Amino acid sequence: MNSFTILKMSTHSNFGTFQKLIMLPGPTNVPIEVTEAMISPSIGHRTSDFSSLMDKVVRKGNILFECDENIVILTASGTAAVEASITNILRKGDKAIVTVCGEFGSRVSEQISGVGASPIQLIADYGDYPSLSDLERALETNPDTKAVYIVTNETSSGAMCHWLKEAGDLTSKHGAFLIADAVSNWGADKMPLRDYNIDFIATCSQKSIAAPPGLALISISTKYKDQIFKDTQKLHFLNLPRYINFFDKKSQTPFTPALPLYFALDKAFDLMLDEGMDNRYLRHGYCGKAFYDAFEAMGLKLFGVQEVRSNTVISVAYPDGIKDKDFRSSLETQYGVVVAGGFGDYVGKLFRVGSLGMVNQYHVLTTISAIGNNLRRLGFNANLDSALDVAMKNLTNIRSKL
Amino acid sequence: MNSFTILKMSTHSNFGTFQKLIMLPGPTNVPIEVTEAMISPSIGHRTSDFSSLMDKVVRKGNILFECDENIVILTASGTAAVEASITNILRKGDKAIVTVCGEFGSRVSEQISGVGASPIQLIADYGDYPSLSDLERALETNPDTKAVYIVTNETSSGAMCHWLKEAGDLTSKHGAFLIADAVSNWGADKMPLRDYNIDFIATCSQKSIAAPPGLALISISTKYKDQIFKDTQKLHFLNLPRYINFFDKKSQTPFTPALPLYFALDKAFDLMLDEGMDNRYLRHGYCGKAFYDAFEAMGLKLFGVQEVRSNTVISVAYPDGIKDKDFRSSLETQYGVVVAGGFGDYVGKLFRVGSLGMVNQYHVLTTISAIGNNLRRLGFNANLDSALDVAMKNLTNIRSKL
């Protein structure tokens, strides 16, 4: 592993008239070799050509997820992977604990209700995150809980779960299933399925994996697998035993897969294996810290509670007088940098920078420069020198650690 | 419309070492300009860039489907579109009539049972198709039928529904919904949603549309739309009102779409609009007939009942002594032509040629030559001259009609 590979200025970005720097919490910038992998000849999904491809992809995925069972890939969004985690095990009347501190936790809670199960919500303010002791209390009060749903990174606010390993141990001790809705931070933050006692990880292709959107990835424990074969859901599309059986028999998918995206995923997995997961976690951590430190140095107020800050979604409060629409549209049209706004009640109050996927020094410095410059242009006296200086210090730090 | 455009030898096929001629009932050969459309810069799915793309795609789709409501696009397989047609309107205890004469009819029937509704099966032998009078009788016996599910083209056997318009009129008169599982022949056989009184058409990107797999397309009637807003299903991923509301408000999708496939679909829709749907139906009809006539002239026995033959999936019985595995693997490795085998009990008894998408004279003649040659090599005395002659007559016929 050459530690400079991931830090060098990207020669891939095609940073011209049409290409923008996508600093969103997904989709992310896709390396050109991953994009180009989609231009593969048509193949049939019931042929040995596809079986070979699928075997390769699953084998690589199993290494990355650090799991015992084969990963399952759906042609669908991350929401479908989360929904599959629910429809495959929860039944009418079941109890499931769920972390709710933003849009995505609320969605999981609704999906749990959708199958007639009862969500027990661990609620925290927007920008904060529930605590491990909240979970402990909920499990003690509800010893018949069937599953615990942790939204590992609340994309809508930029708060993350810092006690996932402890949650795995605790939930396993209570005999419940631990489900990680890790859609926006698997691959960026450490969560080995087996070692952390996680039973289900849901993520998708366009977040830290840095492939194009369209595939949802699922990794399950043997305990979860046994349960869904014992009591199998009746519909087809999200029916995981069908996917597992089909792969075991033919190394194929039960329903037609988005073939070009499989070629892309295969290439994206190669890049992950080449970098190494530990390096990847470090890189995400340092890039995230570079952003936080730079925004503070610039004179901006970070949004949310410091202790629960996400490594991948950086939320920043707008200074007085800066309007969301003006700021983000000029950032995109003048500087070619795309960042996200707030959600729900927080629209107009904050912006969110996605720092994930192949994020590197080039992306971080370009984004900070563009944001600082744009804020100055709009009348906020951003201390850009100081921001770039502190970002650069963090980024130099990565080189010495990798 | 230049009638020669669609018949000229494809310069797109890249017919070299790696590219095979895919004569499957989907995925089909994808024109290179559609494939290359996927190489577009990363865009965010919550940006005006995506809204513009989505608006274009939906507007074009509405013309092609000949419908009043906006089409809905899911990042998923055709199975998901069919499942959405079920989960969005059928409830526990509802009755639904369904045509069952092969694998895909059986799947729909299982999916209907999956939501606790009762499927009333119109059964025909494999290779045959239920009749309109079967439907009439079933509707009379079950006046409380909520929906009629027609698998318009039973891909597993190569039998199609030749009374779809009549079914629409009849079902509408009975106040039920007509659902067309048209996964494998929308775009190849005429089925204007509004004129045929169809309430739901399910199809997907990799069949007659000739785009890569990964998107499911849904067109609904106003009657169906009213029903699903009156009684909305609770889960998220296949929840059509969520898709409709999101599009109405923002010209976006509620969950992350497979962006590269949207660029490809946009281009594929352009090619369909350029050709014109009536020309497209004619082309599929003539290419299908060229295959049927050529296989008979070759001395082969066609599979299935003549009156219900599909225009897009040509099923041929193997002559004595020809083994499926030998035939299809040498066809692929020696001639570079990929065709499908039989399903279930019919594995080894027949092969199926997919004649859809951008299928043209070049594909038809190449496939017939390869199959005839390969059969001769394997010991069957195929009359190849006569087969090519009769195919060519049919194909010349297209030119004069378009």
Description of the molecule:
2 copies of one chain form a homodimer. With 402 residues, chain A is an alpha/beta fold. Chain A has 2 domains: 21-30 and 276-401, Aspartate Aminotransferase, domain 1 (Alpha-Beta Complex); 32-274, Type I PLP-dependent aspartate aminotransferase-like (Major domain) (Aspartate Aminotransferase, domain 2, 3-Layer(aba) Sandwich), CATH 3.40.640.10. In chain A, 43% of the residues lie in helices and 15% in strands. In chain A, the strands form 4 sheets. Chain A has a 7-stranded mixed β-sheet, with helices on both faces. The first copy, chain A, has a 3-stranded antiparallel β-sheet with strand order 11-12-14, with helices on one face. The first copy, chain A, has a two-stranded parallel sheet with strand order 1-13. In chain A, helix 2 (48-65) packs parallel to helix 9 (259-275). Chain A is globular and about 60 Å long. In chain A, 56% of the residues are buried. The interface between A and B is large, with 58 and 58 residues.
Give me a quick take on this structure.
The structure is a homodimer of 402-residue chains. With 402 residues, chain A is of the alpha/beta class.
List the helices and strands and how they pair.
The structure is a homodimer of 402-residue chains.
Chain A: E1 21-22, H1 32-37, H2 48-65, E2 72-75, H3 78-87, E3 95-100, H4 103-114, E4 118-123, H5 132-141, E5 145-151, E6 153-154, E7 159-160, H6 164-173, E8 177-181, E9 200-204, E10 215-220, H7 222-230, H8 240-250, H9 259-275, H10 277-298, E11 301-302, E12 313-317, H11 324-335, E13 337-338, E14 350-354, H12 361-377, H13 384-401
Parallel strand pairs in A: 1-13, 3-4, 3-5, 5-8, 8-9
Antiparallel strand pairs in A: 2-10, 6-7, 9-10, 11-12, 12-14
Helix pairs in contact in A: 2-9, 5-6, 10-12, 10-13, 11-12, 12-13
